[in-house]
């Protein structure tokens, strides 16, 4: 009889004891979470070590990221103001940069750019660098290699007449 009464008492207190344990554990978790301090100034940081070494006030340090962002923004705006507005200007800029006349169809491309409101017109440096090896090939050799690639891979074949 003594053993069953102990088991009954444990069963009666199991749910309240479990709830109490969960409550205490939850409180501990909530209090242990790091709290962010509001209004931490991030524009200027001060060196604490200089305050100990000299009697003057700590020297503010400006973080370089805002300066870099401003410089990049100014550079971008400057690049936008230098873009060609006419076909003649675009041709001149292309010839100046790359030492050769623009490719066939450049005028159609320029019309497309203007009709679609593109803001960057003269920046081809990456594309020209990527195509540089192909400029060394004669047209016949370029076509032969393109056909070789097309026949090497299964799938649909597309032919373009230029």
TrEMBL record:
Keyword Transferase among UniProt keywords: yes
TM helices/strands, residue ranges: 12-30
Keywords for this protein: Membrane, Transferase, Transmembrane, Transmembrane helix
Single GO MF annotation: transferase activity
The name this protein goes by in its record: Beta-1,2-xylosyltransferase 1 Short=Cxt1p
Lineage: Eukaryota, Fungi, Dikarya, Basidiomycota, Agaricomycotina
């Amino acid at each position: 009889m003594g053993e069953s009464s102990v088991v009954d008492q444990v069963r009666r207190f199991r749910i309240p004891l479990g709830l109490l344990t969960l409550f205490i554990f939850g409180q501990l978790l909530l209090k242990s979470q790091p709290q962010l301090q509001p209004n931490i100034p991030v524009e200027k940081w001060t060196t604490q070590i200089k305050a100990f070494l000299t009697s003057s006030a700590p020297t503010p340090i400006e973080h370089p990221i805002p300066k870099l962002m401003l410089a990049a923004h100014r550079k971008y705006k400057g690049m936008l103001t230098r873009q060609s507005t006419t076909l003649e200007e675009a041709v001149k800029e292309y010839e100046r940069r790359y030492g050769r006349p623009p490719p066939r169809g450049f005028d159609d491309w320029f019309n497309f750019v203007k009709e679609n409101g593109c803001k960057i017109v003269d920046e081809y440096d990456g594309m020209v660098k990527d195509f540089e090896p192909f400029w060394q090939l004669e047209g016949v050799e370029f076509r032969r290699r393109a056909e070789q690639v097309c026949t090497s891979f299964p799938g649909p074949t597309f032919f373009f007449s230029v």
